[in-house]
Fold each of these.
Amino acid sequence: MAGFHEGWQALPQSGLDAQFWSTQGSNLLLAAVAIVAFIAVVALVMFGADLVKGRIRDKVQLVALITPVLLLLAIGLVYPAIDTVWLSFTEIVKQPDPVTGINTEVTNFVGLSNYTYAFTDPTMLRTIINTVVWIILVPLLSTGVGLAYAVFIDRAKGEKTLKSLVFMPMAISFVGASVIWGSIMYDYNETGSQTGMLNAVLGVFGIGPINFLATEPWNTFFLIVILTWIQTGFAMVIISAAIKGVPPEINEAASLDGANAWQRFWSITIPSIRGTLVVVLTTITIATLKVYDIVRTLTQGRYNTDVVANKMYVLSFVEQREPLGAALAVILFIFVIPVVIYNVRSLQKVKETR
Amino acid sequence: MTAPVMTDQLASPKKTKAAEAKENLTSKWATAAAIIIAALWTIPTIGLFMTSLVPGDLYRTESWWNVALDGKLTFENFGYVLFSSFGDSSSAPPLLGNLINAIVVTVPTTVFPLVIGLMAAYAFAWIPFRGSNFLFVFIFALQVVPLQLALIPLLKILGPQGIGIAGQFPGVWVAHTIFAMPLAVFLLHNFIAQIPSDIIEASRVDGASHTQIFFRIIIPLSLPALASLAIFQFLWVWNDLLVSAVFGSIKTYTLTYPISNLAGNYGATAYLVPAAAFVSMVIPLIVFFSLQRYFVRGLLAGSTKG
């Protein structure tokens, strides 16, 4: 690395001193040791379980196989989820202790008041409505565009490359995508030349510059475009595989019967891949519910663009209003309950047929 | 028509009725629409790369295409954000530390869930026990629970009042591993359940224990599924912001955290953001394009059998 640094002598080398390298080196070492130790422990436990003799061996091995997962999920997801639900029915009051003067936290049960607040306060209500708009638009738009693209390029020349181009945003972080759209596509200058690509294009047609991220209520839609841009590739790849699974004989027969391309698309392709379409819509809906990175990076919820996931982060970790944040998390979960039920049902159907 | 299911191969050159019918749909308009979509999905990323080459003093006033026409594009921003400073002031640390942090966070959290998930997936797929079905469906359903629901209590468990590893790498590893579990178990189970039952039953009859089957049959046969899940998990952890923000600290933040912070405030150093964003994208893009085939396979295994 030393040789490379010499080219940058004009710049201050603030962070990269010996201490930096020793810290980063020991971090990398820590990661390597952790991986080796983890694999060693797993191997020891598994082979230890293999030394057990007799009929209980199978049981010991079963326990060794599933205990880690059950333990992690119980501690890390199940208990926390229950605790969050409880927290959402409480308020935390800080009172100075009369003797010591030190603040103590008292947790009071307040019933549904956090929920009442979430659905009556205009800012909170707006946040919830925005989230619903996200959940409806992102899956529909990405699945729609993904489906169209998959059909258009099916068996076209260079199909693989064409797929990669649209699939690529999947590898880009939500933060990276937000930077791309926020400071490259949507950038706005009040006067002078436009550095944002969209405003530059609009300028060619004589349309004045638009402050995309501050123009209500369309700004939420412009943020939705970013997630759609990321998710379309996912929808396209899976739909494309499903389309290739439709037996060509059906299309052939329909075409002999005089059905045109459009009719075959609606009465053969769509019904044949309906299951896949539902899976894609479901998966993208779940991803949309959790999205917070885009709003946090670009608007921090300003200009009425907040969504539940971001608001709950701010309430819980910035404003110290954890019960209200917990209530929002529960509301988010209530939104997904239909999706959970649908998925469990279809999973059980698959299991029964197996 | 001999195009096999779920491959990207082109159709056989021999034209059948179906192929001709297909061509009708792929009309001029469809081709034009496809080109427009492909362009819309590519131009923003190219725009980011070009903008990251614009010198800081021109960033606010000149568009990247004008700077390019003037021949003033430079790679200086990349060197600056990586090795000198990235932030509101020139004393802010450079991104190289966050880049190394990203490796320290991502590599272990790719290995841990894969191993633990594979063990459980084998048990659920091939060891009959009471409650197996219920537990598996329960784990599957947890996949849909928003992780926001678990953040506050889990932070208390991992934080100073609990076991005290929040804000350090082990805390971030544990959080990421837990949140990856439901999907890992589900995807690997789907794959392992498809292994022909003769193989496993024959080994059982020959007296092989579950440990032996796991190491000798399950691990070698699951390599394709493990590869795709590893890529998926790698991308997800590398690109994550929420878990990293909640369970990490200044010592552990990966690239997304400082970039997200600076991207929103449009200050004097805003010109560094595109270069930083591109730095954060390089490794995932390399992983993605070199291993895309396995990644896509993994997505399909998990998505078309739900």
Amino acid sequence: MTVAATPAPSPATAGEQSGVRLARSRRNAELSLLLLAMALVAAYGATVEANLLDTVTPDFWMPAATLGVVFLGLHVVIRFLAPFADPALLPAVALLNGLGVGFLRRIDLGDAPVADREGLATFAGQGGRQLAWTLGAVILAAGLLAIMRDHRSISRYAYTLGLAGIVLVMLPAVLPPSISERNGAKLWIQFGESFSIQPGEFAKLALLVFFAYYLVRKREVLSLASRRFLGIDFPRGRDLGPVVGVWLISVLVLVFEKDLGTSLLYFGMFVVTLYIATERVSWLLIGLVLFFGGAYLAYVLGETVGGPFANFYLRAEIWLDPFADPTDKGYQLVQGLLALGTGGLFGAGPGGGQPGILPEVQNDFIFAGIGEELGLFGLSALLVVYLLIVERGLRAALAVRDSFGKLLAGGLAFTLGLQVFVIVGGISKLIPLTGQTTPFLSAGGSSLMANWLLIAVLLRVSDGARRPVTGAAGKAPRPAAGPPEQLHGAPTEVIKP
Amino acid sequence: MNAPLRRVGVVVMVLFGLLFVNLNWIQAYKADEYRTSDYNGRVQVADYKRKRGNIEAGGTAVATSKETTGTLKFLRTYPGGAEYAHVLGYKPVNLADQGIERVENDFLAGTSDQLIGDRLKDMFTGDDSGGGNVLLTLSKKAQDAAYNQLRNNQVGAKKGAAIAIDPRTGAVQALVSMPSFDPNPLASHTSSEAAAAFNKLEQDPDEPLKNRALSETLPPGSTFKIVVAAAALENGITKTTQIPAGSSWTPPTSGSPIRNADASICPEPKVTLLAAVTESCNTGFAQLGVQLGANAIKEKARQFGFEQEDLTVGELGEGGLPTAASRTGTIQNADGGDDPAALAQSSIGQRDVRMTPLEGAMIAASVANNGSQMRPYLVRQLLAPDRTTSYYTAKARELRQPVSSQVAGDLRDMMVSVVQNGTGKRAAISGYTVGGKTGTAQSAPDRPDHGWFIGFALDKNGTPISAVCVMLEQAGSGGSAEAARIAGQIMRAAIADPGGR
């Protein structure tokens, strides 16, 4: 790319010039935003009760307060362990998580007989379970912050994590269906009656660490030692082998587990980390061609051959015309669209809609259920919050000085954004519907924990990015005036002219 | 690596932009289509959130909503049970609604534009007053009589219908179709229960869901002679004109002779028109019809309301329960010339002539009301949820004038003679002038005949009070006499219930 073609350098330099401002920890800003988020969650709970119970119980603030205590705990941990972490991440995630708990509680209230509604305890039902999961997930995130004092330290376990990732992805596939299958998808490991985890959710994190580490190590080779074919520089097979292998195994397994959403997620994750690492747009193009080619091939194969592709064909058919079979195959998608349409611009108000009609409203269709009650304006606000988290993650990646951190944070942030796109696009008929959790909103511990771990990593990377280089680890000295120093401490970053 | 990271940021922005645009498309542009989709169960739950208004007959609620603790807040119940089923219809959760429930749905549900003021008031007071109330014209006593008499008819007929109208206004006093059904299980919130009840009714060979009073057409038999007599009176024949009769008569081009129901009926070669009506003389009317010609009979029938396809019975303005058109059928040859055999049979209400009980009652009513036929209606008044404001009050409307007042007077005399001296004696009510015409209609060679009676009751001053049509399907011998008896009972009840008018 020529210099003339690059856009004005102001956004790039702005981040670097604001080194002085970045050096401030901004923890108090985080605290105020967090309190604001919890106030919103409490207000949401009150409105739900007013609509569903015709009265607001004296305990309406209990879920919000419980969550508030949990998040405040994490806030304190961050103050000590990651004092320079991005102050917007925790409040944004806390708001989503809180609304998720509030909405699940709203579903519980709607399902309960009218007489029992007022007495529904804070920790009862799905909402209560999600509250407990949140507590566990936040403790896990705090633990990760405590163990991983520098994000570079996990690169030491990259191969172990890569292996673990593959094992986690494959585990449900090899386990007998009785303990791994639910609603036709083999994604679970069931422990006893009520406890189950989705190992794939954690595999996402592990594999990304491996991708990031491997690609950073082979970065020079990948961008330099290449063969030119059709005007595109291809790296040598042996340089790309392991990462392609790991990715291929995961995607194949997922395709045969019929978890199309996650395989799409892994594909996007892989292509984007490859692109960030090599800085070659050709990877994006190849990725897109492969993706659309593969999708079309799977569609055609599904129509003619069937087998493992039949599921894909079915989903594509439903996507093209959900109203062709509105009471059976297209039922879910149709009901999701009707919920969104009923919500309209302003929504029915928290507790004012009928999201209970939606199948899987606590999981895949939670965004449609919320859309019915919060309307287009509410959903837009939620999308903005997600976008904020993703862009803050990318910003941490931009600002951090080591390549591993850049790739890790960039990959994680993009993966989070892609996941939101896949599920929200799916339920709103923008793309074919594939089963995915909506990060921080959907019911379920695995997804919540994995995504909180992801946030912990982003917090850690952003802490590293914003920490003044002169400061000793763990301490937060007042920012020193003077020229920005971060370039001195960027040994692995290749500064290109 | 910062350049690709920035581009990834842009990609995420674009992806979220697509989501945003798509959500706008769904939640703004397509919102109304999705909101009102047939597959959207929310509309229904919202429907059941507000208390639906009552439907009342004679001051009693015959359809009302009870609060429940379920997801659907209000359960529709029908305290009147099967007796009012064909008028009220039902408001089921998962099936199509029927009857007045369907016709007045917007008003009962409170979503009608007329009730916008009440909804606004509710917004400010915080109350939820529910939907509006529909007051029917039905007289409780007449409806009771029609339902009970029809159900316990003395000839064992399983199917039939009765309808009574106030001849002066067209207000329906009673409307019963037999067999009937209990609408309560159909309105059950347990949709499987409702569906099971519906399927059972739908598969019942006696077709209880059918509204026989409004939508079933059967050969009217001799009741159709009133139409032929009206045509005759307008073509120079009077009550006392001697018309050809006889015990048997064969139309010019057909081999099958027309006979009377009994050898004792008009065996003499000529009888007066009055006697022909009183005794129900088939040979007389067959010859009279051939003499008048097909066009005269078809035209007279049309003027009485035959062939009208768009008549509805509900409010007087528009809407209401649909009715079937009564037909005279093809009486003529293909070239438009008279077919005497067809004409002779049609003149005594056979061959292709088909009539609804509603049409029978309307013929009797127009005779009683000096030749003026009023548009029948079922909805007397629409009351606001709090019953203070009336949004609609029926104002009787003339539908048509089938015969002149003078011809109506002659027809009245002849019909009164039927009840006083002829075949309709069982309809008589002491102290009142009752007129009518019986009918026995062959349906198929191997099936029992249908029994008909159309008639009216006038008080001492000659004011018409009620006009009735009773039809007993495949009632067999004695069917029309039983129909006359039931009609008399219904009119007696209508007389005893001045509040119903």
Amino acid sequence: MQTHPVINDFVVRFANVNGTGSASANNMFAKAIFRMGIPVTPKNIFPSNIQGLPTWYEVRVSDKGYLGRREGVDIMICVNPQSMKADIAGLKSGSYFVYDNTKPLHKEFIREDINYIGIPLTEITLREYTDPRQRMLFKNIIYVGAMSALINLDMDILKQIISEQFQGKEKLIAPNHHALELGSQYVKEHYSFPLKFKLERRDLLKDKILFEGNAACALGAVFGGATVAAWYPITPSTSVVDAFSEYAEKFRVDPESGKNNYAIVQAEDELSAIGMVIGAMWNGARAFTATSGPGVSLMQEFLGLAYFAEVPAVLIDVQRTGPSTGMPTRTQQSDILCAAYASHGDTKHVLVIPSTPSECFEFTRQAFDLADQLQTPIIVMSDLDLGMNDHISDPLAINEDIKFKRGKVLTAEELENMDRFGRYLDSDKDGICYRTIPGTHPTRGMYFTRGSSRDEYAIYTEDGAAYKRNMDRLNKKWETIKSYVPQPEFYQNEQTSDLGVIFYGTSVYSALEAKDDLASQGIHMDAMRIRSFPFNEEVSDFISAHRKIFVIEQNRDAQMRSLLINEMDINPDKLIRVLNYDGLPITAHHIESIISKHLDVQPNASKSNLESTSISAS
Amino acid sequence: MSFQRPNFRHPELPVNELGYRKKDYEGSLSTLCAGCGHDSIGGALIQACFELNIEPHKLAKLSGIGCSSKTPAYFLGNSHGFNSVHGRMPSVATGANLANRDLMYLGVSGDDDTASIGMGQFVHLIRRNLNITYIVMNNGCYGLTKGQDSATADKGSKSKAGSVNEFQNIDLPGLAIELGAGFVARSFSGDKTQLIPLIKAAMAHPGFALIDVISPCVTFNNNVGSTKSYDYVREHIDATSTIDFTPPAEEITAQYADGSSLQLAMHDGSLLHLRKIQTGWDPTKKDSAVRALHEAYAKAEILTGLIYIDENQEDLHALLNTTETPLNKLQEKELVPNSSVLNDLNASFR
């Protein structure tokens, strides 16, 4: 049944049991492909559970460099009997099923149209190891070793990765190398073929990195000068502060005194976390918190205060599947509206929306400048897919020696030389006022920060005209903000079509692939990636210039579309919803099928025969 | 409309060591009801800060929501203030304190702001031992919404409308001691001689310091049957001790040097002199302090004064091992790793 080889273009899925140590073996598998210079996209598909439930790890390999998730599995490595039935049922014809054949497969698991590759993982580990934990852990390394022989994954690279991973624990290196060999040898001795799907070294990645968004946000906070992190643990944002803590310990401990140039407080809840951020930034330090949807809900009141009282704050929202508890370990882009309009009254917040780890780094770093300059909360809108999965990305970069942009903060000298300080005076006519940091000057610059209405001198008032002046100035500031925030990204130099496609965040990967696929069928579309809210003129120009626009999002209610319509008075008929909200990252195939339906064309034949493989425990 | 206190003061008002007059510690005109206990507390704060020679701009005053939380506008007008959201002042104060450990922090709250909506943040503030003076203006009722019972209203206490509170009260000093607070006091807004030295001692305490001040609400909770009315409190008050406070570097007097007095040296060099009135009570012993509270409660007495003190606690900055330089003063060179670090990091992600 061997047919034409398929080089560097397939999907491998590992079916594991949560909590058995498979994650590092699976990561090693993806990293080794990355080091072979081949574009690779690994994704954790994991349950909201600590131990015992089925968990999957999916790796897409794409010579063309498409980094979105793709439906259909070509090679399944099944180490979890619990999900085996569903895993087999979901496979398409001609795919491979790698399993533990220590015991023979029951006949209900046999399909005629797929290839079975048995490796006696349990038998090998029973033979080789006495300790039960070792038997469990090395099983994972053995199947990676087996994959090395099956698809030509470079064994030297695998060994190198292990050596790096166990630096400082050298005695673990040899046993791990041995486990790799066990897997590889077994395959070589018992199977004569390399599979139809195989790897070939490439040089497609140059200086790219393989990194996860959450740790990139954490580094952005380090380089952005954050000294206070206040947080309440919540999936999938927890690793942001975990990573910040790790990097801060490395880069922020004063070598002479041994004292920390940072403070991290695990708050009692999200309300407290954002309160601490607001208190710290009010007092002139740079502070942030990281959370997800339910946390954003709890922070709403404080976000409204920070908007109205004009206190800087930085919040990283790693979105997950809502509403309510939803699916805590699945991805979505469904906090857009609740973040943009968080809190009661006429409130709106600045969103910056990264798509890659390097943007997670850059946007988080910039968020501190923006918060200080604009004196308002800045919300970094990441998501689980970006935050908790490794992505191929440009390297993290800083332009020069970083100088913090502190915005309009008055010094003692400036206060000395001015007539009367007015905290909410629009002196520069851009809507952004001057602020003072407590402790600056003995007799000047003091004011009262409050969530209630006040005049230009921060004095409490319920005068309607003063309230309205303030609210109008906040709107003027909103206009100013448009020139500060990241501009949208376009993927062609000029307009090529009257059709447009808009997307943001992690939808970019599959959106660009779908755009290419549709173009190959003669459907050309111009593409724009939104990278911030408020929307600037370029966003409205793009929308005006196109007859029909597809808005690709990962939520049910087309939240970005609503935001665009609401903020820019667009005719709703013009914006067509392209949505996915099953908790898994959106795919190009899905996007194409919706767009094709609207344009009344047949979707790409080469992709439409892919079976959608649902993931669920039987 | 806004209220401003007239600027004119007698030109020869006395100045403190820093050259500040008492008016430098005043704020805008109060908008609270005439006779409100909260204004008396504000007056005590003004006096205490004047006497302590505090530089007004080196103190930040933070509050939540409610009558009590409005008061920071009425004192320390030369200090930055932050009127935050209901019950959440402790978190804002924590962030502010983390940002700049060199300022003094004064938290002003009410019984509802602390014991109801803000209970969560209050207990965690104590747990973290933030260096703050936390004053609860406790009137046992909701003033701004016209007189509902609060969580500190005593069981059996009558509201102005005549209804009897059926629920147990939350005793904040008792709770604070249980939670490990290092400085716990209670006072009465009508007793400035006790309140002022307590405020001064609380400000000198290098960690969390609670002063629960019974502060009758003249409009909604000053009726017969209320256990937080002026008359009731005056009739049932029982002081633990008389208190005097000697600032650092001042000559130490021996005015309480008789057998029943206690001198406590604070970390900043100041001294707290206590002359005990309660027998069998030692403010440095937790069990003794708790017992004194319980005994007073059993006799329907309101125990006031310094109830418990432990001067040897580490504050949040010590616990977090933060640098002596305030975090908000750190510059790029202390905070941003150089670009070669980023190159090394990138290399590690390949």
